[in-house]
Each structure stands twice: as structure tokens, then as C-alpha cells.
Amino acid sequence: MNALDLIKIRRDLHQIPEIGFNEIKTQAYLLNKINELPQDFLEIKTWRTGILVKVNGSHSEKTIAYRADIDGLPIKERTNGIGYQSTHDGFMHACGHDFHMTIALGVLGYYSNNQPAHNLLFIFQPAEEGPGGAEPMLKSEELREWWPDEIMALHIAPEYPVGTISTRVGMLFANTSELFITLKGKGGHAAYPHTANDMVVAASHLVTQLQSVVSRNINPLDAGVVTIGVIKGGTKQNIIAEEATIEGTIRTKSMETMQIIKQRIQQLVQGVEVGFTCEASIDYGANYCQVYNEQERTEEFIEFTKKRPEAVFIESPEAMTGEDFGYFLEEIPGFMFWLGVNNQYGLHDARLEPDEEAIEFAVHHLISFINTK
Ligand SMILES: CC(=O)N[C@@H](CCC[C@H](N)C(=O)O)C(=O)O
Questions:
Q1: pTM for the whole structure
Q2: Pairing of strands 164-167, 334-340
Q3: What is the pLDDT of residues 282-304, one digit of tens each?
Q4: 69 is catalytic
Q5: Which UniProt keywords apply (predicted)?
Q6: So what's the pLDDT on residue 3?
Q7: Is the shortest distance between the CB of 133 and ligand 1 below 6 Å?
Q8: Catalytic residue check, 324
Q9: Would 3-173+290-371 and 175-287 be classified into the same CATH topology?
């Protein structure tokens, strides 16, 4: 696949973003492209909406895996007339998974024409943004049968110029937990507040109280995040809301801090139940363990990158982003790295327009690295 093919593939994928475990068109598109490649060294399996492709090496002593996530986000795209916007209204590849898939296809395309020494395994994984595809995929028969010896993955980084690679040994991304809180009270007429228990007021208090968890309950030398991304409640402006829901995410560096935050959220929610005479429930949704880069493989990749004249290496700070690739790294030695894609808008921004030049750079970098192994 040449650079032009890859850009077309990226644009095609950009137009069909689908959320976790609904990646039907995405899977069909990827399978179509994979089936067009020379098949001599390839074996292909599907797992739910994901795909596994094994490239059989010429004298393999190990299997090296490369993982790309394939799901999009529920964001209404607001890019500036790019001509290949999402055709799925309200959904967008705003976290770069269209890049991740395209780069994986580019590397796979090369090795389908040039047999590698070792076996390679390309993992197209669904549902990274939620509810989490990595953990169940790791338990699947399909992956167990082709278990790799080492693994790598990348994530686009809009804040870095094209040609930049950034990573670190140890924690790269944080532990995460989703957070869904439902408050049930008593609805009523807007003019008779004394006969109702207003869940819009209860939810507003709770959101404000949740802001105190990190600032008041976590050691300032540690780190944590509680972000509420959604608050919903009520049906009409003159009806007191019977129900409200709050949705967010928790991020921590340690699992101990995650427990402290969850305990404190529990207490605050119980307080709201008493204070506003309502019933509350908490659901922690999908939880991801941190992305922890294994020392030997990460250092090998950093040393390789530093020697490449076309690449700029930056030692990455830890980030409070999450990634279920952490589950792969719990079981298989390897690493994740940031790939510069140079854009003023960040991840999960409806205006994100990563620079497509990064695709060819990444494909060449990965092929050159894999060829050293
Ligand atoms: C790289 C990135 O942006 N990843 C997501 C992962 C989401 C995990 C989960 N759905 C949650 O919200 O906790 C992120 O938001 O960091």
C-alpha cells in the first residue's frame, strides 16, 4: 500500500465511526482491505467486531503483536470543510483510531508482501473508548491460540509535530473508572416545590461536592481526576425533575487512590440521598488498569528511535488519559507510544484534524523497528 492508498483508507474510515462493539462497517471495511492483500503468509480470524491477522514468519522464534483500536466516539464532528467528514451524524473518530487502524494496515500491507522473520500478529481491537474490548479479547480462544510474546501500540498526540515519538518506561497512562450515578426523587409541578424532591437541585449539589474529592481527600503529592462529562435531568422547564443522572470518569496513578476516591464518592452520594430524600445508585462501568510500559522493550524502542535521523524523541510525561491497552501490557511485555500528528485541537475535540503526513512516517518507523528484531 502506498501513501496515497493509506490516506484514502484513513479518509474512508474517518467517514464511518462506530462506537464500541458496533464496529460493523469498520470491521467489514478492514476485512475487505485485508482480503485484498497477498494471502501467502496470512491467517485471519474475527473476534466479535475485532479482527486478528497473523503473518507467518520465515524462521520465527517469537510472535510480535501490534494492536490498533477501531471504535469512534459519540461526538458531532465540527472539522472545517475537510470533504470527508463523518457520515454517521453524532459520531466521530475524534481520538485518532482511524489513524491507528490505517497505520496497522500499512504495516500489515508491507509484511504481506515481504515475509517477516518472526510471526507478527495484528490486533484490531473494538471498544477501547468503552465498554472495553481488550480485557475480554485477552480471554478469548482466538487470541489465546495466537498468544504473542511481545506487543506494541501507538496513540496519536496532536500536541507534537509530525515526526515526534514520545514514550517512557513505567506508567504512561492512568487507571480509569467510568462513573454513572442515578438519583431518583419525586417529580411535581414547578409551582409546588414543597411537594416534590427535585433531582436537578440534588444533582447540582452532588456535582459541586464531587469537585472536593480530589482537592480535599487526595494527598496533594499524589494525583487523581474526577471529571463529570454529562449531567441530565428533567423533561420540561416547568416540571420538577423526578430523576437525574450524572456521568463521569475517575483517573488515578495508583489503585489505592482509586479506592479512596470511590469510597468518598459513595459517602457523598449517601449524603445526597439523606439530604434530598432520594434514592441513588452508582455504577462504575468500565475500569481500565494503567498503561505500564515494560522496561526492556520500551528502552529498545527508545534507543532505536533516537538513532533515526527523521524522528524526534521526547521523553513523555505521565498522562491521566486511559487506555485498555493496559490490560495487554499486564500480560504481555511491551509498550505504547505517542505519535505526533500536529494539530491545535486535542483528543476528543470535535474539530480535531490530525496531519495525515504522520501515517507514512509511523508506518516506516514501525517497519524499520520490527525489521531490527
Ligand atoms: C486515549 C483516550 O482518550 N482514552 C480514553 C479512554 C476512556 C476510558 C473510559 N471509557 C473512561 O471514560 O473512563 C480516555 O478518556 O482517556
A1: 0.93
A2: antiparallel
A3: 999 999 999 999 999 999 999 99
A4: yes
A5: Amino-acid biosynthesis, Diaminopimelate biosynthesis, Hydrolase, Lysine biosynthesis, Manganese, Metal-binding
A6: 74
A7: no
A8: no
A9: no
157 C-beta closer than 6 A to ligand 1: no
User: Which grid cell sits at 318?
Assistant: 505521565
β-pairing, 119-125 vs 63-69, is: parallel
Pick the catalytic residue: 129, 198, 242, 323?
129
Say how far apart CA 228 and CA 231 lie, in whole Å: 7
Tell me: is residue 95 an annotated ligand-binding position.
yes
CATH architecture of the region 3-173+290-371: 3-Layer(aba) Sandwich (3.40)
User: How close is the Cα of 167 to the center of ligand 1, in Å?
Assistant: 18
Which residue ranges in the chain fall short of pLDDT 50?
none
Cell readout for 196 is: 416534590
Sign for the pseudo-dihedral over CA of 19, 20, 23, 26 = positive
* 278 annotated ligand binder: no
CATH 3.30.70.360 fits 175-287, yes or no: yes
Give me the amino acid identity at 71.
D
Q: Could you tell me the residue ranges of all domains in the chain?
A: 3-173+290-371, 175-287
pLDDT tens track for 70-121: 999 999 999 999 999 999 999 999 999 999 999 999 999 999 999 999 999 9
Q: Is the CB of 100 under 6 A from ligand 1?
A: no
Ligand 1, atom 7: closest residue by C-alpha: 129
